[in-house]
Amino acid sequence: EVQLVESGGGLVQPGGSLRLSCVASGFTLSSYWMNWVRQAPGKGLEWVANMNKDGSGEYYVDSVKGRFTMSRDNAKSSVYLQMSNLRAEDAAVYYCARGANYAFQIWGQGTMVIVSS
Amino acid sequence: QSALTQPASVSGSPGQSITISCTGTSSDVGSYNLVSWYQQHPGKAPKLIIYEVNKRPSGVSDRFSGSKSGNTAALTISGLQAEDEATYYCFSYAGSYTNWVFGGGTKLTVL
Questions:
Q1: What is the number of alpha carbons within 13 Å of residue B43 lying toward its C-beta?
Q2: Could you tell me if B47 lies within 8 Å of chain A, comparing CB atoms?
Q3: How far is residue B81's CA from residue B57's CA, in Å, rounded to a whole number?
Q4: CA-to-CA distance for A97 and A86, rounded, in angstroms?
Q5: Cβ contact (<8 Å) for B102 and A106?
Q6: From the list B38, B45, B93, which residue is nearest A108 (CB)?
Q7: How far apart, in whole angstroms, are the C-alpha atoms of residue B41 and residue A53?
Q8: Is the confidence at residue B2, as pLDDT, over 80?
Q9: What is residue B51's DSSP assignment?
Q10: Tens digit of pLDDT for each residue in A8-49?
C-alpha cells in the first residue's frame, strides 16, 4: 500500500524549533518530488515547500524562507522539515504529499504543530 | 502568485449536479493544463480527485469531472451523494517551482 506517515509535531514555544518527518512506504521515494503543505485551524491549504527527486533543489513559500529547511534521505524513504524561529502563524497541521504531474498525488495523515507560550 | 478564486460554498440535493469554479489568470490556469482538484472531509487529509484538468486517478468515481475554459477551471460532480459533502480545493501550476498557491476552498453541502 502506498502510504506517507508524518510525525514530529507538537507544542513549541514561539521562537522554538521542531523537526517533522515523513516516512514513505509502498513506492520508491527517489522517483518523486515531495512537498510539505500546511493547514491552519479552520483555514485552507497552504503549500510550504518542495524538493526535487535527488534533493538538489528545494523551494519555499516566502513566509518560511530562511526559517524552514526541507531535506530528504531516499535511502531511508524519508523527508524532513526542519522548522526554526517558529511563530504563532506557523501553527497548523502539516502534511507531506507526493508530487506527480504538478499535482499532490498522495497525502499523509498530517502532524499538528502548536506554537504557544 | 495570487491565490486562485473559488466560491466559498455551493449546495445541491442528492442526485443533482453541481459545478465549482476556480478562477486564475493567464499566468496559471490559462497557460497550463495542470489544474488539480482535492476533496477534504472534516478532520481528514486532502485527496486528489482530478489532475491535469480532467484526468481521474484510479479509484475516483466517474461522477467527478474537470474542465477548463480560458483562465477558469471547473469541477463538476454529478449524481450528488451525501458522501460528497466536503471542502474542495483547486490548484494550478504557474510556471515555477515556488510560491505555489491553492484556491481558497469551496464547502459543498448536500441538502
A1: 0
A2: yes
A3: 19
A4: 22
A5: no
A6: B45
A7: 30
A8: no
A9: B
A10: 999 999 999 999 999 999 999 999 999 999 999 999 999 999
